[in-house]
Amino acid sequence: MSGAATLLASITNVGVGNTAWAAVTFAASALMWISVGLYLHTTRRGKFQVWSRVLDDLDLRGDEQILDLGCGRGAVLLMAAQRLTTGRAVGVDLWRKVDQSGNSVEVTERNAVAEGVADRVELYTGDMRELPFSDAEFDVVVSSLAIHNIPPDAGRLKAIDEAMRVLRPGGRLAIADIAGIRHYRRRLAEFGATDVRVRSLGWRMWWAPWAHTRLITAAEPAR
């Protein structure tokens, strides 16, 4: 190959390489912006839309006793309270800011007042692995993106045990999480829970390519 031909081939290869690199860079940038957009939607609107439907599916009468495990600032807790008339919505949390920014009982209390449901909301400081409630005290137990924060696996399974302990016969469970659902499902089966179902919550609760949210629902066996 002549010197001119060699130079032309080198230039062509560089051009192809640059084009490929530009395509990869563009794709990565597009994925990043799509991820950011979906994350912001999930945070600001998506999770509320999803949980509104989940709570609607429970077909609440209004007199239920509802427990929210790891309630945080009250996103799910307060939506549940809005569906109650004579019932009560109870939230329990350790109020750690490492789990959620601005996480404190005072913030959640203010949010309950702002939403007009303070009269039917109760807040407790407690560990999901050792709930400060009696057996069979609640009709419904919910949890959103909280149980996965408990270390290690045994601790998370203990939280599932506690959730079932405080459910009344025929009571219902709804847990949304980004990890551990397979283990929760196995534990619920061991516990004898009925109507155990798992489904993806789709793009409205999509936090990242590796952190999509799934919902597991079940019922405490009627006795």
UniProtKB/TrEMBL annotation:
One record GO biological process: methylation
Keyword Cell wall biogenesis/degradation: no
Family matches, as Pfam families: Methyltransf_25
Residue ranges of domain Methyltransferase in the record: 66-171
Stored InterPro entries: Methyltransf_25, SAM-dependent_MTases_sf
Transmembrane segments: 20-40
Coiled coil: none
GO molecular function: methyltransferase activity
Keywords noted in UniProt: Membrane, Methyltransferase, Transferase, Transmembrane, Transmembrane helix
PANTHER family linked to this entry: EXPRESSED PROTEIN (PTHR45277:SF1)
Identification of the protein by name: Type 11 methyltransferase
